[in-house]
TrEMBL record:
The chain crosses the membrane at residues 20-41, 89-113, 125-145, 174-201, 213-232, 260-278, 284-304, 446-468. GO terms for cellular component: plasma membrane. It is found in: Cell membrane. It is a multi-pass membrane protein. PANTHER family: BASIC AMINO ACID ANTIPORTER YFCC-RELATED (PTHR43652:SF2). InterPro entries: C4_dicarb_anaerob_car-like, DASS-Related_Transporters. It comes from Persicobacter diffluens. This is C4-dicarboxylate ABC transporter. The keyword Electron transport does not apply.
Length: 471
């Protein structure tokens, strides 16, 4: 495809004729590998019990069970099962994409971005103030109400912003995704990870927030620095971009003007984002409520933007169509987890990883916990699910190792949060890359230096509580 070749021009210079496979192809082969694993890895299960309306594992209850290897033909049925299991998030992606299609059809976002770009071009210093502020805001969202799937919405805003500022698609993805991810990993009050983990570990809810605030500042500072250094480098020398935006004929069109109706649409959008933050943090909104909010915003914006019913319908379908690849990627990723669950190998892997932590010095044990949670996140890219699976095992284990349960929760938080930025089994990770048309290999290459620094910082931040009274 010529579009893909344009995007990969820079990459191909350094990798000769290597052709990067499409995201769906990568996920398909991962699915095949997991089918193979069900024939190799022994099947096993932990006993489970209900605690505070959540299913948790019973420590020391692991036992081998009758193997249930998945047939090769399941490579064709698992994606459909995954689609069914991920129906809510897929509906969310399609409806939010459709809503943004309507909002974009009004021209309000492009007109608003044109004003921002105009200001930044007149006074370039504003660009270097604006971008860090946006990254910090996304990080705060990740740290307080666990922004994750919601970044799929904001990618549709930051991509055109990055393009208008002559940056690249990688930064268009990184500003909301890595920004929120750094906040998620260094979360202060995230109810979906810290809240659940501390509840299961039987320690006061959101206790230790003072030290986690320091953690958040460190992770956010590292992230802002890395993103801004890359932005500065490619601004000074565009040839250093790892990826270029696809060239579009519309690029040379006259910029949209900010009319009164478009200003009202932008105001509605701003109020909607405020309502989103309130709903998620106070009322516990999730996919259905957030999707309904954006659908309502889209329809109201279309009416105010003077679009006909036919135009609103066309824009909605077009917006949803743009998100179809991301929706299919989510279904495929969920299908991988369906295979691992039906094949009864998740608990076996969990047992092997948790067993390797025992009998080590405290400092090594904490690092092993971090490695354990990071590895598990590949199989189970769900913070709440991972907390429910591992805290019943690691909490009593940390008592035996004379490690604070707060530190164990922190190791879980780091392992879950940091690897979310790169694991190919995460529907959100692969979804944002699909939307931005960023090949996974290029993303991994760009993220590797940042991941190394963040994991080094995470290791240091885990060791401090072992030797200083921070809890």
């Amino acid at each position: 495809m010529p579009q893909i070749n344009k995007c990969l021009a820079v990459w191909n210079k350094s990798s000769n004729n290597f052709k990067v496979p499409d995201t769906l192809v990568i996920v398909f082969f991962i699915l095949l590998f997991f089918i193979g694993f069900t024939h190799i890895i022994p099947a096993g299960e932990y006993l489970r019990t209900e605690v505070n309306e959540r299913t948790v594992l019973v420590a020391n209850s692991y036992q081998e069970v009758t193997a249930n290897p998945q047939p090769l033909v399941s490579v064709f049925t698992a994606p459909l099962k995954g689609f069914s299991a991920a129906a809510e998030i897929i509906a969310f992606i399609l409806f939010v994409g459709g809503a943004f299609g309507i909002i974009n059809a009004t021209g309000a976002i492009s007109a608003g971005l044109a004003q921002v770009v105009s200001i930044c071009h007149k006074k370039p210093i504003f660009q270097w103030i604006l971008l860090p502020v946006i990254i910090i805001l996304f990080s705060l969202a990740g740290a307080t109400f666990g922004m994750s799937e919601e970044v799929l919405v904001f990618i549709l805003i930051t991509l055109p912003l990055a393009k208008a500022l002559k940056l690249d698609p990688i930064l268009g993805v990184a500003i909301p995704f890595v920004g929120a991810g750094a906040g998620f990993a260094g979360a202060i009050l995230n109810p979906f990870t810290i809240g659940i983990a501390q509840s299961i570990a039987e320690i006061p809810l959101f206790s230790g927030w003072e030290y986690r605030t320091l953690v958040w500042l460190v992770f956010t500072g590292i992230t802002v620095t890395y993103l801004m250094l890359y932005a500065w480098r490619i601004t000074k020398d565009p040839d250093k971009k790892l990826l270029a935006f696809e060239i579009e004929e519309q690029e040379n069109k006259t910029m949209e003007t900010l009319t009164l109706s478009r200003m009202i649409v932008l105001s509605i959008f701003g109020m909607g984002i405020g309502l989103l933050i309130w709903g998620v943090s106070i009322k516990g909104w999730y996919m259905v409520e957030i999707g309904g909010l954006f659908l309502g915003m889209g329809i109201i914006s279309g009416v105010i933007g003077r679009l006909s019913a036919a135009d609103i319908n066309k824009a909605f379908v077009g917006g949803a169509k743009e998100m179809m690849t991301a929706a299919l990627v989510v279904a495929m990723c969920k299908g991988i987890l369906v295979i691992a669950t039906d094949g009864k190998i998740i608990d076996t892997i969990l047992y092997a990883l948790s067993d390797s932590v025992q009998g080590l010095p405290r400092s090594v044990s904490v690092m092993a916990m971090l490695a354990f949670q990071s590895s598990l996140n590949f199989l189970l890219p769900s913070g709440s699910g991972q907390a429910a699976l591992t805290m019943p095992i690691l909490s009593p284990l940390s008592d035996l190792l004379d490690i604070s349960r707060q530190t164990t929760v922190l190791a879980f938080q780091f392992g879950d949060g940091l690897t979310n930025l790169i694991i190919p089994t995460s529907g959100v990770t692969m979804g944002v890359l699909s939307i931005a048309k960023v090949p996974y290999q290029i993303w991994l290459k760009w993220m590797l230096p940042l991941m190394l620094v963040l994991f080094f910082a995470a290791g240091a931040l885990l060791l401090i509580p072992l030797y200083f009274q921070v809890w």
